[in-house]
Amino acid sequence: MRILITAGPTREYLDPVRFLTNASSGKLGYAIAAAAARRGHKVELVSGPVEVKPPKGVRVTQVVTSREMFDAAVALFAKCDAAIMAAAVCDYRPARTSRRKLSRSGGLTLSLRPTRDISAYLGRTKGDRIVVGFALEDRKGRARAAEKLRRKRCDAIVLNQPSNIGVDSGAVQVMLASAQWLPPMSGTKKRIAEELISLVEALTSGVPSRRSRS
Predict the structure, then answer these.
(1) CA-to-CA distance for 92 and 77, rounded, in angstroms?
(2) pLDDT tens digit string along 86-129?
(3) Phi and psi based region of residue 100 (left: phi greater than 0; alpha: psi -120 to 50; beta: remaining)
(4) 22 catalytic, yes or no?
(5) Are 165 and 87 in contact (CB under 8 A)?
(6) Does 210 fall in a domain?
(7) What gap in Å lies between CA 106 and CA 126, rounded to an integer?
(8) What is the number of domains present in the chain?
(9) Measured distance CA(187)–CA(207) in Å, rounded
(10) Phi–psi pair at 15, nearest 5 degrees
(11) Which residue is catalytic, options 21, 22, 62, 212?
């Protein structure tokens, strides 16, 4: 199976030196890519700027902006069987980018525009392929994850939380398109990654990988 995986943050530049971004480390996305490669899958990893060493046996496409990640993910998904959208893509970008460094004097007012939703686009165009989305939420997690799963037409969505950012262990919850929640996945990110790859393998074969519960 060939799997597309996105990981890390994106950057949206205000000027040549300043940018909007987030705290994503890319650790879980890279762990997922490594787990898929260990299990013999061909992996296309689209990564934003991170300080994580690329996994062995994984083809990495380095990007910076959300537009670059969108273009790379769409192009690579054309030859993939599944996509795991673990990247923390910036939701907004500056309406205008200055070619020169903006002056501090006089203050700064930003006008922002939404970036394209990569998971939603892949969900609309997937056909019989599998798309697993991610939802990072700090409140009303299950409700918001469920709404994103339906709107983005994902086959499953991983409910993540801010406390997982940058650490080596944590916990996530997964909701299937059937509206069923799987038992929580916890432990090292390596362990969580293995469980997520097992889930994708099960989804592509149409066989549940873990007993679900509401």
Answers:
(1) 23
(2) 999 999 999 999 999 998 887 888 999 999 999 999 999 999 99
(3) beta
(4) yes
(5) no
(6) no
(7) 48
(8) 1
(9) 24
(10) -155, -175
(11) 22
Nearest one of 178, 141, 182 to 160, comparing CA atoms: 141
- Domain range spanning residue 150? 2-99+111-205
The two structure tokens encoding residue 84:
């795991």
**37-76 pLDDT tens trace:** 999 999 999 999 999 999 999 999 999 999 999 999 999 9
In a domain, 15, yes or no: yes
- Distance from the Cα of residue 180 to its chain's centroid: 21
| pTM score, whole prediction | 0.93
12 CB-near residues (< 8 Å, 6+ apart): 19, 20, 21, 65, 66, 90, 92, 93, 94, 115
Q: By C-alpha distance, which of 17, 32, 70 is closest to 48?
A: 70
Say how many residues make up the chain: 214
Rounded CA separation 97/15 (Å): 6
